[in-house]
Write a structure and sequence with these properties.
single chain, 7-stranded parallel beta sheet, Rossmann fold, 242 residues, alpha/beta
Length: 242
C-alpha cells in the first residue's frame, strides 16, 4: 500500500534551497521520494549532494526569473522559499530597501506561481504549491516594514490563488515558520537574554529545527493534503497560540 505521504515519481522545485530552511525542505522532499531541483542565486551544490537531485540558478532580484522554468519539463511541486530581509527604523527606511524586499518576497512569489500554474494547466495536471510565509504574516514585528508587508502579502496571495485554482487541480498553501535554528538566527540564539525571552513564549519550550519545516512541506505537497487549500500552517511551537 502506497503511503499518502509518498512523493515518489514527483518532481519538486525549491527556491532558496542552498541553505537553512530551503535546504531542509529539499532534503525532506527527497526523503519522501521526490526528485528535487534546488534553485538559488548562489550554489546549491551541498543540497544537490544531500538530495541526489539537481540545481538551477535563479536570482529573484528579477521577479520574473522563473518565467521560462516550467515550460520545458513537468514539475509537480513548487516551494517558494527564497526571501530577503532589510532592517531599519521605519522613519529611516529607504525606497530601495522597500522595493528590493517586495520584489523578491512577494512579486517573485506571485509570478513564479503564475508560471508554474500556466504550465500545469497546459498539461491538465494536478500540482502543489507551498509558499513560505512567516510569523510576520500575522504580527507586525519592528524595524522590518517591507518584510512584514511582503509576508502579509504572501498569506493573502496564497489564499487568493487557492480560491482561483483549487477547482483546477492546484493546491496552494503556505507554511509560517516560527523561531528556527538556522544561520539567520544564530546571533539571536547566542544572545542569552533574548533567547530566554523567546523560549519563554514558545509552549513547546524549544527552538524549531529546519527539518520541522521540511516535514510540514512534505505533508502539504503530498496526497494527504489533497483537500487542503488556502491554509497558512503555523509551524511555530505554539508561538501564535500564546
Amino acid at each position: 500500500m502506497t503511503s499518502p505521504f509518498s512523493l515518489r515519481g514527483k518532481t519538486a522545485l525549491v527556491t532558496g534551497a542552498n541553505t537553512g530552511i530551503g535546504q531542509a525542505i529539499a532534503v525532506s522532499l527527497a526523503k519522501a521520494g521526490a526528485h528535487v531541483i534546488a534553485a538559488g542565486r548562489s550554489s546549491c551544490a551541498e543540497t544537490v549532494e544531500m538530495t541526489k537531485g539537481e540545481e538551477i540558478h535563479l536570482d529573484f532580484a528579477d521577479p520574473m526569473a522563473a518565467r521560462d522554468v516550467f515550460s520545458g519539463r513537468p514539475i509537480d511541486i513548487l516551494v517558494n522559499n527564497a526571501g530577503i530581509i532589510r532592517r531599519a527604523d521605519s522613519t529611516d527606511f529607504t525606497e530601495a530597501d522597500w522595493d528590493d524586499v517586495i520584489d523578491v518576497n512577494l512579486k517573485a512569489v506571485f509570478f513564479t506561481c503564475q508560471s508554474f500554474a500556466k504550465a500545469a494547466f497546459v498539461r491538465s495536471a494536478s500540482a502543489k504549491i507551498v509558499n513560505i510565509a512567516s510569523l510576520l504574516s500575522f504580527q507586525g514585528g519592528i524595524r522590518v516594514p517591507s518584510y512584514t508587508a511582503s509576508k502579509h502579502g504572501v498569506a493573502g496571495i496564497t489564499k487568493l490563488l487557492a480560491n482561483e485554482w483549487a477547482a483546477k487541480g492546484i493546491n496552494v498553501n503556505a507554511i509560517a515558520p516560527g523561531y528556527i535554528e538556522t544561520n539567520n538566527t544564530e546571533a539571536l540564539r547566542a544572545d542569552a537574554g533574548r533567547s530566554a525571552e523567546i523560549l519563554s513564549r514558545i509552549p513547546a519550550g524549544r527552538w524549531g529545527r529546519a527539518e520541522d519545516i521540511g516535514d510540514a512541506a512534505v505533508f502539504l505537497a503530498s496526497s494527504a493534503a489533497n483537500y487542503i487549500h488556502g491554509t497558512i500552517l503555523n509551524v511555530d511551537g505554539g508561538w501564535l497560540a500564546r
